[in-house]
Design a protein that fits this description.
The protein is α+β, with helices and mostly antiparallel strands. The protein has four helices and seven strands; from the N terminus they run E-H-H-E-H-E-E-E-E-H-E. The protein has a single domain, classed as Riboflavin kinase-like (Elongation Factor Tu (Ef-tu), domain 3). Helices cover 18% and strands 37% of the residues. A hairpin with a 2-residue loop joins strand 3 and strand 4.
Length: 126
Amino acid sequence: MKVTGTVFSGRGACSRAVRAGVYPESLLGFKPEFGSLNVVVDVGLVAEIEKRFTKYVVPYYGQGLWFWKGTIESDVMIPCAIMWPVPGATKRQCIEETNVLEILAPIHLRTKLNLKDGSKIEFSLK
């Protein structure tokens, strides 16, 4: 499934979690680069993704984040983890909107793909 989202700046909460080692390389399949990419997707898309794809859970400050494995196509295929908070979490430290996802990758996506706020990005879920 291919998904297109619009890039925007976050508050850096997930970057701090990456630095703290919250996202294990053994579960993601790669060592995440500091800095996640925030993207807005169509409302309702997350529910569709949840039904169709295997999700993994990473504990995060007493709650959790779901993530799905995916790729971003560039001059090379970039593995990524598409993050979402577990429903029912009392604090959403990282993601606050229902149509916002965060993408972790082994490279700094903004730099490598020359992305700015408002840029479109396409990624695929596995």
